[in-house]
Amino acid sequence: MQKDYVLKHAGPAPRYTSYPTAPHFHAGIDGDVYARWLGQLKPQQTLSLYIHIPWCDRLCWFCGCNTKQTRKYDPLKTYLAALENEIETISGLVDPGCRVTALHLGGGSPTMLKPEDMVWLSKALRSRFHFDDGAEISVEMDPNDLDADKYDALSEIGLTRASIGVQDFDEKVQQAINREQTFEQTREVVEQVRARGVLSVNCDVLYGLPHQTRHSVDRTIEQVVSLRPDRIALFGYAHVPWMKTHQKMIDEAALPDVTERFAQMNRASSSLTAAGYTAIGIDHFALAADSLATAAASGAMRRNFQGYTSDTADALIGMGASSIGQLPQGYIQNQPSTGEYQRQVNMGRLPVVRGFELSREDRLRARIIELLMCDFAFSFSTIRHEFGGAAEQVLDEAEYFAGCDTDGMVEFSGGLFQVTDKGRPFVRSIASAFDSYFSEGVARHSLAV
User: How far apart are CA 345 and CA 339, in angstroms?
Assistant: First the structure.
């Protein structure tokens, strides 16, 4: 692909894990609004729970998560006590007939928790929410944190999916991002969780990191594939030092430019598909039997704050500092400061600092953007069926966009708006054409590839 074409379409764009995106959340949505929304959930509606553990025993310089470093365990014990209070408050507002179909522990490093605290947290949640027998339990893992007792605790809480951050196995790259993790450590995690009956393993790989080359990415992909994870996420490093100040530790001169990033992505994608993985969306690859591959093939795949998912729960309830929730009415985000979060939940308050209530037009645009991000296409008849006459203005925009496209990014025929193979790497930029908030405010975004 020509360099000018890549430069033209790879400009900054949101990742669209929500619409509107988080920079457009506002303080008009508070704990009182959230309490009302929670109370409107009906019996038998399904819930996905996300628990944020905002602590790491080292700070990776590439990380874009809300986390902080600690070498002591006392802050985690204090945090868990506060988290129990939030669990108690939320469970008291949700109809007891609601069913939990998924639980995800993220961070930070949830595997920093002591084995007994992992088990305690699981019991605290299960004592207050009704979990389906087949609920998916997924945990983000740092191989440097794990030992036999923790593997046993993860098994005890019913772990069904292990998510392992790999990034890159090249030592020079690891040193540049302060993330030292050997292939042997990673292989040990995969072997240990599988020995305890975990049937799904996910590995995250990054391109666009300092000192990365196509060769180093190729080598990392080769090593990851040898472990045969069920799912692989191939993310482009998002360099946003204006948001994450620890990224200033990264030497910007060592970062590959946009054309090199694009080449790394293409090489890695080709290697993964050649190894038998199905390309899904913009950055996921899965074996045919994986639930995400099944969902993508049937058109049931969704996109939320955790990225691509087969989770179809009616509401995503985030708990912990900085956690984001998604309910039928809209989005909420908790207080990001752990100290203030703990103060509020210990007083019995919902620690919401901002959010967004969706209008009918927001829901329409969110649906189109999600379909583009998941399926690279949407049918006019489907949108009309779901939204009626309210859809016509946005569908006119889609037809106009297709008519103005001179670069072969999209096709429009027979009422189907479809992103071409040439346009797929830039679908975030295409989706932004349907984002009525994109040009508003001062939000800055990472590169679209």
Answer: 10
pLDDT tens for 1-54 read: 567 767 776 677 899 999 999 999 999 999 999 999 999 999 999 999 999 999
Give the separation between CA 329 and CA 35, rounded to whole angstroms: 12
CA dist 404 → 395, 410, 411 (Å): 14, 10, 11
State pLDDT tens for residues 276-307. 999 999 999 999 999 999 999 999 999 999 89
Strands 284-286 and 278-280: antiparallel
User: Is-contact 326 37, C-beta < 8 A?
Assistant: no
DSSP 239: -
CA-CA distance, 334 to 324, in Å (whole number)?
A: 6
**Side chain identity at 226, as an amino acid letter?**
S
Amino acid at 185: Q
Pairing mode, strands 231-236 and 200-207:
parallel
How far is residue 227 from each of residues 242, 267, 340, 380, 436, measured CA to CA in Å? 36, 19, 42, 42, 43
The three-state DSSP-derived secondary structure of 263-295 is HHHHHHHHHHHHCCCEEECCCEEECCCCHHHHH
Among 290, 307, 159, 278, residue whose Cα is nearest residue 230: 290
pTM of the predicted protein model: 0.93
- The amino acid at residue 380 is F
Could you give the 3-state DSSP secondary structure of residue 107? strand
Can you tell me whether residue 15 is helix, strand or coil?
coil
Residue 119: which residues within 8 A CB-CB, separation 6 or more?
153, 156, 157
Per-residue DSSP letter, 47: E
